[in-house]
Amino acid sequence: MRIRAIVAASLLALTPAVFHTEPADAQPARDDPFTDMARQRFQEGVKLYDQGKYEEARAAFLQAYALKKHPAVLLNLAQSELRSNHPVEAARHFSQFLRENSNAEAAERKTAQEGLASARARTARLDIRVNIPGADVFVDDELLGRSPLPEPVDAPAGTRRIEVKMPGYPTASLTVNGVVGKTETVNVTLQSAESVAPAPAAGTEPASTTPEPASEPGKDEGVSVTTEGRKPFIQWMKDDQVAWATGGATVVGLGFGLAFALLSKTASNNADNIASQIRARADADPGLDNYLSYNRHSNPCADPVPITPAPYGANYAPACKQLHDNLNTFDTDRTLSYVGWGLAGAGAVATGVLYFVRTNPDNASHGSDSPSTAVAPVLGPGVQGLVVGGTF
């Protein structure tokens, strides 16, 4: 087998990409047009990759692999996807190569493993588990296989829509939030059509199992009573000072949470920009190939932070410090935003509870026994909310 190697830098590490032609004793007859076309597309992809035209190389390798499912094409397709900023596709193809080619050469498996690690540093993973085997699993309308899936699927970060379809079962669908670098477990339960209660026929009303309450003596029929005699909610909010406290806590919490959520987003964007600049410099820095006997391309900010010689070198310490400072700011602002959301939620719940307690019509005849309530906010390590006390 003839092997041709080029330097193929991934986002996080420099790894050699190995390009293969087919073994001489395994080449098909010359009258096989599909194999000939695949070989031409493959060779075009190699040339484009050498020229740094990774998006065009990716297109050529995709065409080659569609014509000929060869492991060498698959490996180089994944490498070009990684370099052309398609980390999800790259991760799936690196993983496919490792699953389907357990007997591949050690250098090829190492290349695939390093590429897979680099791609998954920029993707989320969804561990989709279905209670029935053989069901089609879709993520954002893309069919990814049938249950049980061989491993968690790689997906873009953010809100993802999952659908599971199986003949004889209603389609199950849900949305999940994928986080970069993390694996989210998603359990999907398919229920048979017989277990789902049929909808009432058109034009009919479902029978009520709750008897209508009898009219109270002395009440005129036809007179409607609003909210069981309670004061309207808006009016109660205007009149009751306790409502001012809980409602105010809700508003303050919302403002607090929103403000620090925006600050954490800014810190996160700053950290991403600095990390991209560090990675770009590290990719082009030959001084990191064997810095203190280690390849530091994948993590130039680890201690000791390297200082590499000119003309391509750099002192990575200032940029790495900026990166760490922004990451710390992001963590702090995100925690404070959670405190704000927690205070807002506690205030909203307390407002709803107190409305029903303090507007109870039965309390009107109790005179001095009417409810007395105290509300105080609580903020502390791991705890945020409101304390409500008094007599009801």
Structure description:
The chain contains 8 helices and 11 strands. The model is unreliable at 1-29, 214-228 and 364-370 (pLDDT under 50). By secondary structure, it is α+β, with helices and mostly antiparallel strands. A 4-stranded antiparallel sheet has the order 5-4-7-8, with no helix packed on it. A 3-stranded mixed sheet has the order 6-3-9. The protein has a two-stranded antiparallel sheet with strand order 1-2. It has helices spanning 33-50, 54-67, 71-83, 87-100, 106-120, 233-239, 241-283, 317-358, and strands at residues 3-9, 14-20, 124-130, 136-139, 142-146, 153-155, 158-166, 169-178, 183-188, 372-380, 383-391. Strand 4 and strand 5 (142-146) form a beta hairpin. It has 3 domains: 3-119, Tetratricopeptide repeat domain (Serine Threonine Protein Phosphatase 5, Tetratricopeptide repeat, Alpha Horseshoe); 124-194, Carboxypeptidase-like, regulatory domain (Immunoglobulin-like); 234-391. Helix 2 runs antiparallel to helix 3, helix 3 runs parallel beside helix 5 (106-120) and helix 7 (241-283) packs antiparallel against helix 8 (317-358).
